Amino acid sequence: MTRPVIEVRDLQKIYGEGEATVHALAGVSLVVERGDYVAIMGSSGSGKSTLMNILGALDVPTHGTYHLDGVDVSKLGDRQLALARNRLIGFIFQSFNLIPRTTAVANVELPLAYAGVKPRERRRRALAALSVVGLDDRAKHEPNQLSGGQQQRVAVARALVTEPALLLADEPTGNLDSRSTEDVLNVFDDLSAAGRTIVIITHEDEVGARAKRLVRLVDGRIVQDTRQSPLNQRPVGAFAGRHTA
Length: 245
Description:
Layout: E1 6-15, E2 22-32, E3 37-41, H1 48-55, E4 63-68, E5 71-72, H2 78-88, E6 89-93, H3 104-114, H4 119-132, H5 148-160, E7 166-170, H6 178-193, E8 198-202, H7 205-208, E9 213-218, E10 221-227
Parallel strand pairs: 3-8, 3-9, 6-7, 7-8
Antiparallel strand pairs: 1-2, 1-4, 4-5, 9-10
Helix pairs in contact: 3-4, 3-5, 4-5, 5-6
């Protein structure tokens, strides 16, 4: 039996005091097994962003426990938390967060540089990650030479390059048009088919429909946790994103 990538029990997050108290999370329990593809959905104020911050080890719960790839996150100091975020989690954000005037391959190399990987090995692994997302032919392009969809795929490659236990995406298609959204979702489909563990925070139904599992939050509680047959699935390795959208 392999250990779960995510195991949270009775997570609560409380802000404020007295009449100003807000229960952003009100007892969330969730297990994500290795290789799962989960979409966490909810309207504004549902608690999904708070849950994302805790899963990403960017915030701590008021109550409850969180084990990430078997590690009790509450027992980690600041330096250990930083290492866990670098090695165990690949973050993908709505705003891409690429460094301007820096090539795609250099952007992808960054987490490896922080981890002390030697330059030649960094370059090899970064080019391999760009190939996975269909952008090896754009390795020397800077962000301003890439479309929004291509920039987000570079960000996905950067998240992949450390071989993390978890890919954690926060509204990854929120800034994209429909064609670029399809390209990025196709990448996630292929990564899921290859056995990657993916958690996407989204409010978009079309994004949630592509996941294997849908978790819905309302008022800080899970009200739905169901398996589903993902829509628009393609054969493994069928990524056809080598166009400019």
